[in-house]
Amino acid sequence: MSFVSMLVASACTNGGNPAANSTADTTAKAEVEKELPPPSIPASETFYDFDSTKALVIANPISYDVTTKCYVHDDDGWDEERVANTNTVAIANAIFQAVYKGRLTPYDYFTEQQMPIDSVKAIEKMFTRKQIGKIMFTEKWYFSEATLTFTKKVEQVTLGYELIDKTDGELRGFKPAFLVKLNEAK
Fold it and tell me: From 30, 84, 100, 144, which residue has the greatest number of CB atoms within 10 Å?
């Protein structure tokens, strides 16, 4: 039935009695305006108790890369401005120190197998911490409708070394050093 035929059919109900149509329209409008109950989803699967408020789990997990250095120098300077207040060396120092002290365990990015400390030391002989230009985060995201707050809990961090072509000085990509699982911190 087309939209026009539905309009004609609804105008002709109740013998064309406008009062009857008006009552039917009011009842239909009231039903539409009723608020639907929230979906029934077990709280244990959907919500996280964070600072004594219930927060909806938005992502569990989500992984994404953040380039922490400026590699593109454009006219508007956005790329430089975007990372101007980023201290990648400080986070790298903290992670490496925690690894060397045994507080964090390094894992191979590709296999997720635990790496021996000698492998971490070998990476540091090939690259400096100043060459770290990308960080991958694996996180859980939460949103509290009650407080309108968005919270992220970082669970894994992977540091990535820049690979610069020596012939033209251009960035070719990033090499992962290792990943650490923050929820395993000692």
Answer: 144
What is the rounded average pLDDT for all residues in the chain?
A: 78
Q: Does residue 147 carry a pLDDT above 50?
A: yes
Report pLDDT digits (tens) over 42-68.
444 455 555 545 788 888 889 999 989
Residue ranges of domains in the chain: 3-33, 43-184
